[in-house]
Amino acid sequence: MMHLLRQRAPKGRGLPVLTCSDMLVKAPTPARQRSCLQCSFSSRPARGSMVKSRATMVGAEGADEAEDWSELPLHPSETTLELWQAADAVILNVDCTITKNDTLDLLGAWMGIKDEVEELSKKAADGTMNLTDAMEERLARLNCSPQDIKNFMLAHPPKNRLVPGVEEHIMALRTRGIEIFLVSGGFREVALPIAEHLGIPSKNVFSNSMCWDLDSKHINENHENPIYLPGANLGENVIANNNLIETVQGADLIIFCAPHQFMHGICKQLAAAKVVNRGAKAISLTKGMHVRAEGPQLISQMVSRILGIDCSVLMGANIAGDIAKEELSEAVIAYTSRDAGALWQQLFQRPYFAISLLPDVPGAEMCGTLKNIVAVGAGMGDGLGIGPNSKASILRQGLSEMRQFCKYIYPSVRDDTFFESCGVGDVIASSYDCDAQLCFRHVPALHVCAHVRLPTLLRVAEAWCQRRMAGNTMVSFDDLEKEMLNGQKLQGVLTSDEVQEVLETRGWELDFPLFTTINRIIHGEVPPNMILRCCWMRYQ
């Protein structure tokens, strides 16, 4: 079953704050979309700064009376031309502006329910039906699978869907150095191929995403997650439930292990439902932080503040695939309550999974968060083909900046925390991966090919760097997550953006050359080989 996951623009990236339903392209605009919102930015802003913009509504004379394209004027007004010439960035809508038709309407026709989908689209357009309700209803009627989307894209390649003149128009804008953003009320899965065809990077595409829930029945019957941990027996006492509220209701112990960008929403849901017992205890395995105007907030702090319960953390060098194979692994449980820490230790410890206790929640949690940035840097080094000496320099500088950042934010962090599994141990485990050869096996019931052992953030960063160095400036970490991880989310890039926002806000960039350089490499501001030069800076 598909549902909506709304994508939000990352904080502090200097993205335009204006969105639009239409933009004027070389070909005239259909009568039902009579006017165009065009943006001109007074200057290209730095990340984290307020975007200043001016916009005007421009439309062709007589557009209100026009009934088809042929009746609309072919030449833009002087005001329109002035705006185009002054703009530093342009936001274009995909459906019916870049493309000749609405994506969902076309998908509906392809799925054989053209009239039903178009009727719901009309209700959404004229306001007789809520936009979200209309979208959910269209998705329910379509009920398409990932394979259906692939077949649809093969039947309707991007070039065949474009409005005449769009390719030339986009090329002219790119030649002038104007940054182009695409927005769509449709879906990222069908917007990205259009962006790629037009040479627009995926990071500049903002749309909803299609998500397919893994059937909990399959997990409960087979005791295996065939997408994210194939081949690992989860045990009969692990019961999958897609309903968050039902899962947590009445629980005395709650384990959080969701990607950190979803944790705030999860906690708000639970708080609103009032299903968390007052005496419940929580532990977070989530590596990340929530960036706010007043400063970063740890996930454990968020859980305690919103839900009003004690929250410990489990961090360390413990890659899931190795633990599933019962290889010797270590972890740290950091606590604010000694009794709670001892309870969690008793529950988690196994002959192959050693747990130590540490009274330093901020230190352990920040180490687990920051090591993801170092792993991205290590992967970039692998992509450059560096040897162990150079890689050791990246890891040494990374561990040094991890300690320094922790001390800047939380001065009480203990020095010995960095020598625990959550510190140097996790940096090493995340930055070396001998299993570069991936095997695949088919899961017929899910129509996917799943990895026997999923590649790590390190391998994704390595592949990203190799493609960048080969001249592919369009590749993104999002693309590689879908290609290499079946869409599973890695935390390195998002964590890098969040940490960089803190560094820029507080003027600490020069104090953290590796973190800053990695972030600038990710966003194409400097080439990947700059990661080695930043490690050399300390000797100059």
TrEMBL record:
UniProt-listed Enzyme Commission number(s): 1.1.1.8
| InterPro entries to which the protein is assigned, alphabetical | 6-PGluconate_DH-like_C_sf (IPR008927), 6PGD_dom2 (IPR013328), G3P_DH_NAD-dep (IPR006168), G3P_DH_NAD-dep_C (IPR006109), G3P_DH_NAD-dep_N (IPR011128), HAD-like_sf (IPR036412), NAD(P)-bd_dom_sf (IPR036291)
The record's section on Gene3D superfamilies has:
N-(1-d-carboxylethyl)-l-norvaline Dehydrogenase, domain 2, NAD(P)-binding Rossmann-like Domain, Phosphoserine phosphatase, domain 2
In this chain the Glycerol-3-phosphate dehydrogenase NAD-dependent C-terminal domain maps to: 360-433, 468-532
Q: What class of enzyme is it?
A: oxidoreductase
Q: Which reaction does it catalyse?
A: sn-glycerol 3-phosphate + NAD(+) = dihydroxyacetone phosphate + NADH + H(+)
Pfam families reported in the protein's UniProt record: NAD_Gly3P_dh_C, NAD_Gly3P_dh_N
> Which UniProt key words apply to this protein?
NAD, Oxidoreductase
For the Glycerol-3-phosphate dehydrogenase NAD-dependent N-terminal domain, which residue ranges apply? 217-338
Family affiliation? Belongs to the NAD-dependent glycerol-3-phosphate dehydrogenase family.
What is the name attached to this protein's record? Glycerol-3-phosphate dehydrogenase [NAD(+)]
* The species this protein was found in: Dunaliella salina
* Higher taxonomy: Eukaryota, Viridiplantae, Chlorophyta, core chlorophytes, Chlorophyceae
